[in-house]
Amino acid sequence: MMGLMTGSDAPQTPVPSVRERKRALRRRLRADRAGTSVQERSRQVVGFATGLEQLLSRHPDGPVLAFLPLPEEPPLTEALREHMAHRSLLLPVTQPGRRMLWTPWLDSTGFAPSGPGGLPEAVGPLSEAPQDLGLVLVPALAVDAEGLRLGMGGGFYDAFLQSLAPGTPAAACVFAREVLPPGAVPGEPWDARLHFALTETGLVDLQGSAARAESTGA
Known about the structure:
218 residues; alpha/beta; Rossmann fold; eight-stranded mixed beta sheet; 23% helix; globular
């Protein structure tokens, strides 16, 4: 006769790994972004522009590492262009080995489908990130209240953020609904923590159990 099954013998429900949890969260967030209407994105432009102005005012010195948002990402392109005349902006250009170099973003900058999956990247002279950075704007699918970022899965920014000098201000560019409670973003040892979330409804100071929002009035 079969013996009784003990707790240690009972089948265990597999615990999803951190990477599996990240993949599941990415799928959900991407589906949510895909459902955002063109009209809603148009309304968000002013809020992101105001938040960007506040963020740049907090960090008025040094070059800014930016990025060219894709259609489903926060609409920051025009707001960034407005700062070209009086602030040095640089765009990433991906390299083998999950590295990124940087090129100035100018009115004359052209773009070519040279990024992963044919994504557009700036064409221009390349260099390492400057040492005197004033601010880093980081693409993300979400960030939690302690600054833990969920990226796109390519690993480029994971490696780059680890190379930054301690204390370099870095902001996740996300929609307000993508600022999640502490612990909601699965973390791995190499995941950097960011200082701010730039959203359409305000800036959020991160890296604390209670994130503080600074409203843009949007």
